Amino acid sequence: MRPQSVGTTPGSATADRRLSCLRRHLDPISSSPSSSAGIMESSQTISASPTSAFDSVFAHLAQAPEDPILGVTVAFNKDPSPIKLNLGVGAYRTEEGKPLVLNVVRKAEQLLVNDRSRVKEYLPIVGLADFNKLSAKVIFGADSPAIQENRVTTVQCLSGTGSLRVGGEFLARNYHQRMIYIPQPTWGNHAKLFPLAGLSVKTYRYYDPPTRGLNFQGLLEDLSSAPSGAIVLLHACAHNPTGVDPTLEQWEQIRQLLRSKGLLPFFDSAYQGFASGSLDADAQPVRMFVADGGECLVAQSYAKNMGLYGERVGALSIVCKSADVAIRVESQLKLVIRPMYSNPPIHGASIVATILKDRNMFDEWTVELKAMADRIISMRQQLFEALRARGNPIEDHFRTPGNWSHIIKQIGMFTFTGLNSEQVAFMTREYHIYMTSDGRISMAGLSSKTVPHLADAMHAAVTGAA
């Protein structure tokens, strides 16, 4: 028997031979005698001990900051206080502070589960056909001429964010103007997703801090100076974060301005029915633009109005001048979606389609939707009255007509309180109340029990009662 070399086992010798063979197979040049030393060095390198943590190729990365909105919940979860209150989350809560699954959603899911004919095959690139058809009717109206004339193409996307991203990338690839104007302020993700989609972002004035209302004159001036063909992002209703919406008369002026300048409207409709309690009333601004025969884009989300947050259910609709153009637009949308996520998920869209195509379930949904909207409106009224009851010192600090009246004038899930970042920090530190640093609060996060606690904190913050 041949003696083994010192420090070498049969297993390690075999491993070295395999590594050398693999190297010669992958790199024929290395099989030459002159490269034998390189093979040995490579073998030794490959069989070395695992790389230490300090050698990570990502070691240079800095810790990224928390998302300014989602980070509020992270901080809230770490707070052990029994009186803590999270008003930053953009999701509906019940009077008991619990997440809500609509009864009609549970019914739809049960029907889907019991349907043994359902399979888990891939959807088409554009998504579930029934969902797309019915979603267009929800936002544009069942009797919309644009739908009847087949001038609308709708594709299922990943909730509102995905719909905006697909629309943005479609425009960056196919539209002659790559500049999009977004309101100041707006939902924080708008300014992040559109540049990644390939668009250049500009802002137009929207919120007026002194009145806590709409800066309508500034809006008109900024959009009047926008270059012809620019894209304009518009919140369909319940503007996030301000809760300030134009009146229908102001919407008509905005429509006339955009059409006269050849600007392209891109609606973000995240709260249809969640603002006023009426699907049709909240869709009026969008339908005004569609009625004039012009083109526009609409991103829809069912996160809020059906409570399908985690299901990520949304749609992008593009209203075109003709049916022929709509067909070609859809073909280009497929080219955007296919390499992005290939096709959308089936479950959430099936829930929506099940509800929308059944008259009784649809009616049940609208009743539950109105109940959510009404509770939010009630929270506004209760908070306003609680603040007003705490006396004139607040009025001395705010000096606005009617005092905290902006809370009941604003609409939708969010209220822009007018609190500054120092006041917000004070309320978090002293009262364990969490919200975004700009003073935006989610009215859906309030209850009759927590309104007094919030009113005490706001009163102390604005009067300097540390």
Instruction: Give me the number of helical elements.
Output: 19
What is the structural class? alpha/beta
Spans of 5+ residues with little confidence (pLDDT < 50)? 1-8, 28-48, 393-402
* Spatial ordering of strands, largest sheet: 2-10-9-8-7-3-4
Strand content: 5-15%
- Alpha-carbon distance between the termini? 88 Å
Q: Residue share in helices?
A: 40-55%
What Rg is obtained from the alpha carbons, in whole angstroms?
28 Å
In one word, what is the shape?
A: globular
Give the beta-strand count.
13
**What is the mean pLDDT?**
88
Written description of the protein model:
With 466 residues, this protein is α/β, with parallel strands linked by helices. The protein is 46% helix and 12% strand. The protein has 19 helices and 13 strands. The strands form four sheets. Strands 2-10-9-8-7-3-4 form a seven-stranded mixed β-sheet. It is globular and about 65 Å long. The termini are far apart.
Quick recap of the structure?
This protein is α/β, with parallel strands linked by helices.
What keyword list fits this structure?
466 residues, alpha/beta, seven-stranded mixed β-sheet, disordered N terminus
